[in-house]
Every structure is written in C-alpha cells, then in structure tokens.
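In this section we walk through a basic example: taking a raw amino acid sequence and producing a predicted 3D structure, encoded as discrete structure tokens. The instruction is simple. Fold the sequence below.
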Amino acid sequence: MRLLIAGGGGFRVPLIYRALVSGPFSGLVTELVLHDVDPARLDAVTAVLRSMPAGQGAHLPVHATTDLSAALSGTSMVFAAIRPGGTAGRVADEKVAQDLGLLGQETTGAGGISYALRTIPHMVGLARLMRERCPDAWLVNFTNPAGMVTEALRPVLGNRVIGICDSAGGLVQRAARAAGVPLPAGRLDGVGYYGLNHLGWLYRLESGGRDILPGLLADATALRSFEEGRLFPQPFLAGLGLLPNEYLYYYYQGQAARQAMQAMARTRGQTIHNQQQELYPRLAAAGPDAYRLWEAARRSREEGYLAEARHDGERRNEEDLAGGGYERVALAAMQALAGGGDTQLILNTVNALPAARAPGPTGAAPAPPQPAIPGLPADAVVEVPCTITPPGAVPLPQENPAEPQLGLLRQVKEVERLVVLAAGTGNRDAAVEAFARHPLVDSADLAAKLMAGYERAFPDLGKMWEGGGR
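The resulting token sequence is shown next.
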C-alpha cells in the first residue's frame, strides 16, 4: 500500500513512521510519501527518520516531495495533518481570542473557528485533487478541527473520508485501565460514548455485562490515576454520572482555564512555535543525532499538554508521555479499510446508522436514516464508536444524551455547520454568526471583534469573503 502523508513535515510524522516499521502495523505500507509545502521541514523530518535506531525504520522506502499532484498519483491511502499558516498561525488563533478575554485554545472556541476557516479551503482542494489523481483512495483526516474538516469534505469524498482523534479513544483506554478492566484490542462493544470532536462523554463502560463506570466515578483514588480523572473534582464527576473528554475542561471550568492561560508567560502556541523555529534547522543538520533531538523535544512538548489544567508541580503520567496514540488510531483504521480485519474505534463519521433491511411496500421510498446519536442530525459528522471494514466506518448506536449534554452538542454542531458554510461559500456573515453562537463566546459584540482581529492577523481570510455571501 502506498501511503501519502499530507503535512509530511509535521512534528509527529516520526511517530507514524515508527509504528509502521515495528509492531502490529509493520508491513502494512510498502511505500511512504511525505508531502509538505515547506521543503525545509521535509528535510528535517527525513533526517529524523534516517537516524532512527536500528530496528525502527530500516526497510520502508520514503519519498519526500512538494509536488502534491505527483504525490497523489497511485496512492491508495492519504493521511492528512496539515496546518495552514504553520505554528505562527496557531499563535494568532490563540492570541486574538485571549486578548479579548476569551479562551485561547487552538481547536476549542474562537481559536478553533479561526483555524477551521483557514484550513477547510485547503483540505477541500486536497479532496478535489484526490478525485482527479486517486479517486479510489481513502482520506484519513487528522487535520484539526477534525470534526468540522471531515464534515466539509463529505460533499467531495462521501464515505471515503473519516476523521480521527486520539483523545476519545485514549479516555476510554485510561478509564478501563483505572477500573482494572483493560479492553480487548479493537473492540468497543461494552463502551458507550457520544459527542463531537473534542466534545464528548464516556457514559458506559461494561465488564462482564455490568456497567462499572459508576464505581469508577465514585472512586477518588482511581480517578486520580489518569489525566481526565484529575481534571475534574470527584464529586462533580459522580454527580454528572459521565466521564468527560479532556477538552470539556474548557467548558466546565472555563474561568479557571482562562485565568491559568492569562497567567502564563507564553501561550501554548507560542511555546511550540519557538520550539519548532529553533528545532527544525538543528534536526536537518544533526545527522545521526536527529532522532535523539526529536525524541527529547517530543517528550518536552507532551509534558506541556493541557498545562493550564494541572496544579503546581503536577506532571503527566509516564504512560501519557510514552509517545503516540493518534498514529495507532490512524493505522488501525487504515489496516481495517485495507482488508486487514475489522476493528472498532471512536472516529469522526456521519451520524447515520445502516438502513434497515426489512422489506417495505413495493415502490415505497426508503426510510430516512436513523441517527447513531439520537437528537443530532443523521447527516452530521459526530464522534462515536464505529466498526471499520473495507467498505468504511459504520457507527454503533448510542443512548439518548441527557438534555444538558444534548443541548451543548446541538449548539456546537450548529456552530460547526455555520463554519463549514462560511468556509465553503465565502459567507462572512455565517462566520461572524458562528463566533457569536459558540457557547465560549456567546456575544455578537465579541464576535465582530474576533472577526476583525482574525482578518488583521490573516489577510487571506479577508480575501475569502470577496464574491461570497454576506
């Protein structure tokens, strides 16, 4: 299988490569192509791959290129993880919001909307080129915000695009480990999870046919043993009756998150931008030392993840720092799509259950699809457990979310659809309305200021509205 990584100069590409040359995914890919618009970043990443220790990458051919059209030709699987504007763009996504007293986070709230507005047109361009150069290829999307981007690509690629994120699956695995019942690999039959990307809840965790989640939520010691359990007070979790995705920290404890971010000397984006500005030239010139430099930088970056949510001196668990997560989700999905055996993963895909096979009256119109997450549109992209086979990802039916969760999901999905509309049609009014309706903004005045701020930071954003709807 020929795999193309769009965004092949990305910092985490070596994680994918490492997984491809060792362990259960060894042999899945016969040729790896890295595409990036920045040749210097490609040079740095290929230097890391060449310097991996023996046994971690000696036999997988790698080709790096800045020619996307040529890279797509003959490709059967595309993994997309692009960042238009680079890490400097992330800095602006966060700072414009933070300077207005709002949450400054790259995928959640105002920053996520800005990121999506800039990214969706590039990803739609990639999808259209795929239809020309490799029409039968799958697109496994890790480009953030993953849910919005995946929804924007469905009109071009249909079911041949799925979105991935390691956050939800990692939550399930960590909760199961804390409860003392590790899950079988590739099976989620006893797991209940509903949400959107970076906005979801684990509501059931079965062992031997019994839901053990209530017991975990009542166990303060067990909760303190993993990331999500430490983010929220134990009485709050017990009362909620659910285990939230880590990104819900920004909703449930928004004031604390904003204050912690304001108190930091630099935003998360600035820290990563400074690190990469200094690191990439060193990697390209490091020769056999490149992998060691990259690995040290990766661990440092992981230690700083969600730092605003941790108490003084608190460090992430060694298991969280060991590396990876998202690459295993991506490669497990690819393996199943390529015929390597079905698996179950939490993915971003359309919210429609398979059509019922019971025969209806002759000539009758087919029944409308039923949603996997009741209360959300069947044609919306959601984040939900799925079974993945060569024909694609099929969502598993979930329980009705309670009204507080469903209300938040509906509100954020409405925002996401406004963003997709704005990015796809050049409708500036839809973009401003998306800012205003987001629960972490909730203000028409702030929405107008956000839009003006992002247009100053990203001149191409202003050009996007030319000729579009108002």
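Looking at the output, two observations stand out. Residues 110-133 form the longest helix (24 residues). The two ends are 45 Å apart (CA to CA). In the next section we compare this with other chains.
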